[in-house]
Every structure is written in C-alpha cells, then in structure tokens.
C-alpha cells in the first residue's frame, strides 16, 4: 500500500443502496503464495454480507486489507467512496474510526475491567467527553449487548460468549457505520452462537450498520446474511442468498450446506 500523501476528502455517510465498500481486482501474496487473485466485492449500506471459504482462502486477509491492517499488491479498495490504498496513516485513521472490527478472540485487555476496557477505547477517540458522559455511554452500550451486570468484571471472569459480547460492545461504543466480524461464533456452543447471531441482527437494525461477516458457522451465515459470497482459488467463486447458493448447480458450492 502506498503511503504517499493525497488530498482525499472523506465522503459523508452513504445513502440507502449506495455501496459503503467496493473492492476491485484485489491481489495479495505472501512470498510465492498467492492468496487473493482478483477479488471483487461490494457491500451496500445497511447490508450484512457473509463471506465463506475453506481455511486459508483469504477471508480474514480480505477484511484486514479493508481497514489497512495489511498492505495489498494490487487493486482498489473504496470505503465510503474513497480509495484507502492511496491514503496516508492520518487519512486512514479517519476512516478506521467509522469502522468496527470484532476479532476472533475479542481482544480485550486482561488487566482492565469491562468498564476500563470500554472507557479506554472511548476516551482515546473522544477526548472531550466528561467522566459522566463516558460512564453513561459505557452503560448504554453494555445494555445494548445484554451485559449491564458485567461492568466491573475482569475478562478472566467472563465466559466465551460474554467475552464476544464485551468485544462487540467495545466495537460499538464508537458508533461505527461498518462492522467487520471475524468468526464471531468460533469456539462457542450452539445456544451461545445463536445468541451472538441474534445480536448481530439486532445491531444491524438498531445502529443501521453495514457488515462483512467471516464465518465457518453455516447456522450463523443463514441467520445473519442478506447475501453470501464464497472464496475459492483467490477469487469470488459464487454469490447469492443463502437459499440460492444452497440450491446451486455447483457441487462444490453445495458442499458448504451439507
């Protein structure tokens, strides 16, 4: 990714049906291992796009490229209408504040309580808030994920499902317009996975978020997706709704739904 200074002007919030993410001909290699070989995808405002694919197909790499956590070899990545591959770090940070990223392990600070984890994130990006405003926002977002009672707990006291919810609360506290979910239900039992999937839908409805959801969990994919894409051999091999792909004539595509 180039770091050359540009005069990119960030676009305002997109209107309904306008794309908030557009990827064109994205290539990414690691040495001789070509992972992405021309990925093209679009996410519309308010849409939940699920990306499926076998392990190592480049799903997580794709979303890391979207927020500039990983450089690309070639291609275009437009977020809110601006090409992030032409941005410097200052411009990238303005985009990143509008994007939430839920990591697989929730990435909480183990030495901080839930209150401190959320407050630390909020105060880094909203330095003018009073202590009372910070506290109110922490309580509001914990209520949104159904964990108001966990405010003084340490991460070590939380179950896997609770850690996911707190990780999601920390993502939501900055009111992102886009959320990138990396395996949100991995390692959870069936009931807790269903609860997290329900929460993803509640967040989409309440906060009008647009999301990319990386998952191997077909129950999560069915429950949360407006549209699915399947990565194979470095490109988008198939695209459609859950029902459309489940009935695909392509035997390899159907194998995901067995």
Q: What does this entry show, briefly?
A:
The protein has 258 residues and is an alpha/beta fold.
Word description of this protein:
With 258 residues, the chain is α/β, with parallel strands linked by helices. It has a domain of 169 residues: P-loop containing nucleotide triphosphate hydrolases (Rossmann fold, 3-Layer(aba) Sandwich). It is 34% helix and 25% strand. The strands form two sheets. Strands 6-7-8-3-9-10 form a six-stranded mixed sheet, sandwiched between helices. Strands 2-1-4-5 form a four-stranded antiparallel sheet, covered by helices on one side. Strand 9 and strand 10 form a beta hairpin. The longest helix is centred in the C-terminal third of the chain and has 18 residues. The N terminus is likely disordered. Pfam families: ABC_tran (PF00005). InterPro entries: AAA+_ATPase, ABC_transporter-like_ATP-bd, ABC_transporter-like_CS, P-loop_NTPase. GO terms for molecular function: ATP binding; ATP hydrolysis activity. It comes from Flavobacterium fryxellicola. Keywords: ATP-binding, Nucleotide-binding, Transport.
> Helical percent range?
25-40%
The gross shape turns out to be globular
Instruction: Give the strand order, joined by hyphens, for the main sheet.
Output: 6-7-8-3-9-10
Overall average pLDDT: 91
**Count of runs of 4 or more consecutive helical residues:** 9
Secondary structure topology:
Elements lengths: L18 E12 L2 E12 L3 E6 L5 H8 L7 E6 L2 E2 L5 H8 L2 E4 L11 H12 L5 H14 L15 H13 L5 E5 L7 H18 L2 E5 L3 H7 L2 E6 L2 E6 L1 H5 L4 H4 L4
Parallel strand pairs: 3-8, 3-9, 6-7, 7-8
Antiparallel strand pairs: 1-2, 1-4, 4-5, 9-10
């Amino acid at each position: 990714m180039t770091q050359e200074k540009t005069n990119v002007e960030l676009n305002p919030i997109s209107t309904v049906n306008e794309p908030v993410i557009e990827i064109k001909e994205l290539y990414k290699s690691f040495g001789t291992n070509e992972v992405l070989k021309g990925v093209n995808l679009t996410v519309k405002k308010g849409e939940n796009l699920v990306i499926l694919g076998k392990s190592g197909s480049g799903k997580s790499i794709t979303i890391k490229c979207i927020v500039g956590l990983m450089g690309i070899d070639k291609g275009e990545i437009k977020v809110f209408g601006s090409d992030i591959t032409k941005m410097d770090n200052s411009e990238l940070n303005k985009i990143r504040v509008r994007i939430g990223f839920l990591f697989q392990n929730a990435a909480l600070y183990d030495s901080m309580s839930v209150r401190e984890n959320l407050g630390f994130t909020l105060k880094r990006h909203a330095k003018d808030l009073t202590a009372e405003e910070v506290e109110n926002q922490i309580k509001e977002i914990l209520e949104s994920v159904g964990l108001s009672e966990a405010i003084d707990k340490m991460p070590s006291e939380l179950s896997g499902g609770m850690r996911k919810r707190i990780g999601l609360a920390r993502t939501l506290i900055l009111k992102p317009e886009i959320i990138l979910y990396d395996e949100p239900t991995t390692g959870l039992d069936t009931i807790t996975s269903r609860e997290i999937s329900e929460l993803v839908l509640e967040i989409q409805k309440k906060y009008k978020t647009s999301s990319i959801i990386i998952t191997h969990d077909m129950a999560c994919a069915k429950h949360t997706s407006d549209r699915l894409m399947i990565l194979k051999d470095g490109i988008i091999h198939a695209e459609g709704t859950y029902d459309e792909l489940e009935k695909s004539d392509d035997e390899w595509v159907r194998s995901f739904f067995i």
